[in-house]
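ok here's YCII-related domain-containing protein:
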Amino acid sequence: MKEFMLLFVGADYEELGLSPEELQTRMGKWFAWGDKMDKQGILRGGDALYAHGKRVTGAQRIVSDGPFVESKELIGGYYKIAVENYEAAIEVAQDYPDFDLNGVVEIREVVNFDQQQ
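and the structure:
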């Protein structure tokens, strides 16, 4: 079994101005998706991320506020799942709740250094 990160790229909910009811409905979809993966035994973890943060850059380790990307391109969170291959990970991503908001799921395989030796 391989591990994959599902990185969620999309708009900041606060900037979209969702009503409390819309936000609650949307969060319900996220929790239902997480519960589904948990019951399937494939969910290894995940978290939502705040839109703001810090960046440490270069040899001088300059600290700045960030990320400085378009708000529609923010990484808003991630799930880590364990499935057989990319095709299975793509199938899991079909339930991503924010496709209707033009959100994106970036799927990346996690490097397992123990298997590379």
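+1. The two ends are 17 Å apart (CA to CA).
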